[in-house]
Amino acid sequence: MTPACLTAIAATLPLCLANPGVELERLRQAGVSDAARVAGVMSEVGADDEAADARQAFEYAEWFRRAAALAPNDEYEAEALRRFRAIRLDFVNQPAAWLGYIGEARVHRQAGQLDDADAVLRAVLDEDSDAPAPLRALARLESLEVLLRRDPAQALEQTREDGRPAALWIAARAADAVGEPQRAAELTRRTLGANGVSPHDALALLARTGHATDEEWSRWGTHLAALGRNDDALAAFEQHPAADTALIHGRLLLGTGRGEDAIVRWEDALRDADNPEPLRRATAFAAYDLAKTDATFATLARRRLREVVERTDNDATRAAALHRWARLAEPQQALAVFDRFAETVNTDPTLRYLRITAELNTGSTTAGAALFELAELHDESTSPALDAAILQTRLGLLRDRPREALALLDAADGKAASDGNAAAFSNQRLALLIEAGLIEPARELIDRDNANPDAETLMAFAEALASRHEADASADLRGEVRATAERAVAAAPGDVNVAYRAGAVLHRVGLHGAALPLLQAVDTPESRQRQAEAMIKLGRSEEALALLDRADHADDATTQRLRAALLLQLGRLDDAVAAARSARAAAAPGTDPWWDATCVLAEAQIESLRLDEASRLLRVAQALHPVGSRADLRRRIEALEQRLRPSQETQPAPVDPEREPA
After folding, report:
1. Which residues contact 381 (CB under 8 A, 6 or more apart)?
2. d(Cα 15, Cα 612) in Å, to the nearest integer?
3. SS3 629
4. pTM of the full structure
5. Residue 69: what are its φ and ψ, rounded to 5°?
6. Fewer CB within 10 A of the terminal residue: the chain, N end or C end?
7. Is the C-alpha dihedral spanning 424, 426, 428, 431 positive or negative?
8. 22-35, pLDDT tens digit by residue?
9. 14: left (phi over 0), alpha (psi -120 to 50) or beta
């Protein structure tokens, strides 16, 4: 049958089969088998154009019969009957007309109308029939098929002495039907590869009997894999593993998400493989892919990839293995291997790039220039992925010079916008703008309709806004910081570090109520201090004190200063004095924490009417650690001294600057 004819037939076949790919393959195989058998018969009957036309008409009708068998459908069955009967009329008085009787009998047999099938066949097999001998033989085979449906034991008996492959196939199915699986397997084995017997059905019967050889199981599994029946193929391979199916077995495992099982299968087969290279290559590449998400595969990937690099005779395979291995190897080791295979490396831009990055990672002072040279040489010829990788590395070399990096990124905008890289480079551009202090361009980039910055970049922008306007944050500025921080949290759901950073930046600009639940995302000394500060601002002093008094918290200067301020607010003056002294002792003298603790201690002493102690504390502290130009601290000290002036009317005792009060 010509390809054009097959296409035309396929267009009329059922589109509602359970598994169209598999079923159409079975149709094709069965059709090819019958075509070969019918062709052999017709070559004996005649080789003229009419015989060829009759054979093609028979094959066409057979497709409809098989379609009806695979997806029961009265329309297909009726069409098959019509076409077979048409052969009897179209080729009347020609030997080929008898094909129509045989085809009609097949349709009846398939429908379970065995008496009708026998009646049609009698017209061919009758002694007075003038059907040619080859067609009578074909009709006798069909009568055995009918008998197989009616009485398998009798069919087995009647085929005992018939050595034709088609008769052996009937006998094999009869033996299977009467419960003789070993005999069925032996008979089926004699039909494999013969005209008139579908390899698919023969291998399926062998597998069903349970008496197939390892080689036959391998053929069956491979055949199922070719049909796309992966689960069935896997079952066949796993029940009967064979060395020659290890590669395809592993690929099926890999394709169904069982990468580790695939590698185990290949590793086992490698031990005794006559041709290990395909297995080694498959293991190496699969282990590399798995190592991206599971570091336990990295060692195996490195070893197998190195073996592929060293042992293959194929330059393309070596280059592919080097691409992967170099990303897992230590830079110095990678450079040594690159030097051994310099010819492969020098003709592959990606390998040249990997060599340069290895040099950069070993501290080379000339690799940067080589990278820029590679970018110029391959500006028009490299793949988008390589162009993006080169650009990314060049930007990395300018990490401390954000404005130069921005200029480079602007000059290479086409590469930065290539498929798969646009989002990463957009985030990088935004990070560089923030680092360079270019807030307005950064804001414009964030506000674009299609902008999708990541959480890290959004947090960096929120923190930059807060740092720039922290001293006099307006309502609009606080609103923008809050919107940006909340967007960052939404971009990284479940990321407690992003949530905490968002809380911290909101706290900095005075949005303490919004900050507090975010600050509670993590539980560290620093977090608890910030939570306490927010609670103080919100007037929740008792809660703040309870938080700071947790037993597992360190007695550091900041915590004790906060505790002192809280105790002072709550009127617990003796406790406030003790906490402030602890804060001073924990801080380095003269530092901001030390001065904060000193002022809190002085205020607590004033509130508890220990005025002389407070006065002496401030005078000694300023003598030992002059405030200098720190205006905010000077204003704070002056306010405390203003409260002490009524008590300073008497002459104070001389101050020894080497001795501080306890």
Report:
1. 349
2. 101
3. coil
4. 0.49
5. -70, -40
6. C
7. negative
8. 544 555 555 445 55
9. beta
Nearest to 353 by CA among 333, 382, 396: 382
Please provide the DSSP assignment of 120-162 as one string: HHHHHHSTT----HHHHHHHHHHHHHHHHHH-HHHHHHHTTT-
Q: Say if residue 446's pLDDT is above 80.
A: no
CA distance linking residue 662 with residue 660, whole number of Å? 6
Determine the average pLDDT of the residues in 187-193: 87
Picking from 382, 383, 438, 378, the residue whose alpha carbon sits closest to that of residue 410 is 438
pLDDT tens readout for residues 249-292: 888 888 888 889 888 988 888 888 888 888 899 999 999 999 88
How far, CA to CA in Å, does 550 sit from each of 107, 173, 470, 544? 88, 82, 30, 10
CA distance 639 to 620: 17
**How many residues would you count in the chain?**
662
- The pLDDT confidence band at residue 579, using thresholds 50, 70 and 90, is confident
Assess contact for 124 and 131: CB atoms under 8 A: yes
Per-chain mean pLDDT for the chain: 77
Tokens of 539: 């007037």
Query: Angle at Cα 174 formed by Cα 170 and Cα 176, nearest 5°?
Result: 120
| 257 φψ region: left (φ > 0), alpha (ψ -120 to 50), beta (else) | left
